[in-house]
Amino acid sequence: MKHLKSLTLFAVLLAWAGPAAANTGVLVFGGTGKLGGEVVKDLVAAGEDVTVVVRPTSDRSALEPLGVAFVVADVLNEGEVSAALNSGPYRVVVDALARDGDTAPDFYIDSMKYMAAAAAETGVKQFILHGSVGAGLSRPVYPQERWDVMGPTIQAKDFGERYLMESGVPYTIIRNLVLLPLEVTESGEVAITTDQTKRGVITRDALGRLTVECLDNDSCINEIFHAYDDAIDPPGRYKAVMESFQND
Amino acid sequence: MTKAFVRYVGRYAAAIILVAAVPASANEGVLVFGGTGELGREVIEDLLAAGEQVTIFARPTSQTADLEAQGVAVLQGDVLNEDDVSRALKAGPFRVVVDALARDRGVDADFYDVSMDYIASASAESGVEQIILHGSVGAGLSKLSDRVRETEMSDLMVSKTMGERHLMESGVTYTIIRNWALLPNDIRESGEAFMTPDQTARGLITRDALARFTVQCLTDPMCENEILHTVDDAVEAREPYISRLREQREWEAEQRQGG
C-alpha cells in the first residue's frame, strides 16, 4: 500500500514533469548575428520556444517580430553566462557566435568554457556549435595561405570545441569553411559529412535548416560534421577562394 | 504446433547463446600498445597482478621473451601500419585497450596522431569498451595553462592533441591519463599520488603510480570519458625534476596573486 502510494506520487510527478521537459526551449547565443538570425528564424518556424542571449547594446529589432524571448548577458562574463543558462531550463543550446573585429580570438575559448560548463550544470540535452573547418582533426585541410591570418582564430575555436566535447553535454558540431553572403541561398543539394577532410562553400540558410534537423536527432549526437553545398554557384570572389584551395 | 515449437526452441537457443557469450565477454582481455617500453612494462605487471589476461602489440624486433614467460600473449605488427593494427584488434575480442606508446628517437612527431587514428578506429569497429591512453600534459586544453604559453603548439603536442581527438571522437569510452614530469624508473611512488580532472594541475609522477591508475581506471567510474592529470607531491625526486617543479610552483603562486 505504501509502495502504491509512492508509485502514484511518482506517476503524478512524471506526468507533471514530462510535458514540461519536452517543451523546454532552445537558448541561442549569437542570435543577433547573420548566421544566428537564420537559425532563430528556422527554430521559430519549427515551433520551438526560443530564447536569444543578447548584450544590452544588441540590435533586437530583426528578432522581435518573431516572438522570441531575450536574456541579457555578456558571453565573456562567466556569471552572466551561468545566469542565462539558469533562466531556463533549456533543452538545447545553439552557439552561432562570431566575435567582433576588435575582440581577441580568445573569445571562442572563454565563451565556450563558460557556456559548456553552465550547460552541463543545468542539464542541457544537446549543444549545437557552429564551428569552423580548421579546428580539431580538420587542421591539415585548412588552406595554408589563410592560416597565416586566421591561425589564432582557428586555434581558439579548436580549444572551444574541446571545452564542449569535454563538458559531457551531448554535442553536435557543424563546421563551415567558406560562408557565402546572406543573399545567396542554398542549392537544394546541401550535405553534411563526418569526413573531416571535406571542404566547400555553404550558405547561412542551409546552416539554419541543418540546425533544426539536428535538434534531438540521435544521428547528430556527439558528431562533428562538415557542411557543404557543392551544387551552388558561388559569387565570383568566393569561387576564386575555392579555386585557390584546390592548389594546396 | 511446429511453428510454436520452433519459436520455443529459437527463444531458448538465443538464451543459450547469450549465457555462453556472457562469461566469454567478461573474460575478454586487455590489449596493450607500447607494452615493451618502461611505462608499458609497469602497466603489464599491474594488469597481471589484477588477474587480467594481457596481450601486447609489438614489433617483431621488440624484446618480448620475459613478458611471454609471464603469460603475456604477443601480436606482431607496426603501429604505423593501419592493417597491422586492425588485424590485431580483430584477434581479440579485447575489452580494454591501453596505449602506453612512446615514439623512438627519429620517428616523425605525427606518430601519436597516426597511431591513435588507427587504434581508435579499429577499437571502435571491434567493440572495445574502453581505451586508456597515457598522454602528456601540454596537449588539448592543458596547453592553455602552460607556463610558457606560446601561440603555436610544438609539433609533438599537436600530434598528441590530434591523437586525443581521434580517441575522443571514436565513440569508445576513453580515459586519458596525462603526466607532466615522468620520473626515472628507480623512483617509486610516495603513496600520495592522485589523479585529478583539473587540467591546470602539474606535478611529478612515477611509472608505478601510472600503472596503478591504469588498473584503477578499469573499474572506476571517475575515469569514464575523462582526462586526468597525475600528481605525486610527496615523492622523493632529484634534480633536474626538483628544480622544474619548484619553478612551476613559484609561477603558480605568482598567478594566484594576480602577478
Separation of the first and last Cα atoms of chain A? 74 Å
Please tell me how large the radius of gyration of chain A is: 19 Å
Total beta-strand segments of chain A? 10
Mean pLDDT of chain A: 91
- The parts of chain B where pLDDT drops under 50 for at least 5 residues are 1-26
- What profile does the largest beta sheet of chain A have? 8 strands, mixed
By DSSP (H or I, 4+ residues per run), the number of helices of chain A equals: 7
> Would you count the extended β strands of chain B for me?
10
Q: Helix coverage percent of residues of chain B?
A: 40-55%
- Strand arrangement in the largest pleated sheet of chain A: 3-2-1-4-5-6-10-8
What percentage of amino acids of chain A are in beta strands? 15-25%
Principal-axis shape of chain A equals globular
Structural class of chain B: alpha/beta
Q: What best-fitting shape of chain B do the alpha-carbon axes yield?
A: globular
Task: Walk me through what this model shows.
The complex is a heterodimer of chains A (248) and B (259). By secondary structure, chain A is an alpha/beta fold. Helices cover 41% and strands 19% of the residues of chain A. Chain A has seven helices and ten strands. Chain A has helices at residues 2-23, 34-45, 78-86, 107-121, 144-166, 204-214, 236-245; strands at residues 25-29, 50-54, 69-72, 90-95, 126-132, 171-176, 178-179, 191-193, 201-202, 223-228. In chain A, helix 3 runs parallel beside helix 4. The longest helix of chain A is centred in the middle third of the chain and has 23 residues, at 144-166. Chain B has 259 residues and is α/β, with parallel strands linked by helices. In chain B, 41% of the residues lie in helices and 18% in strands. Chain B contains eight helices and ten strands. In chain B, the strands form two sheets. An eight-stranded mixed β-sheet of chain B has the order 3-2-1-4-5-6-10-8, with helices on both faces. Chain B has a two-stranded parallel ribbon with strand order 7-9. In chain B, helix 5 runs parallel beside helix 6. Chain B is globular. Mean pLDDT of chain B is 90; it is low at 1-26. Chains A and B meet through helix 5 of A and helix 6 of B.
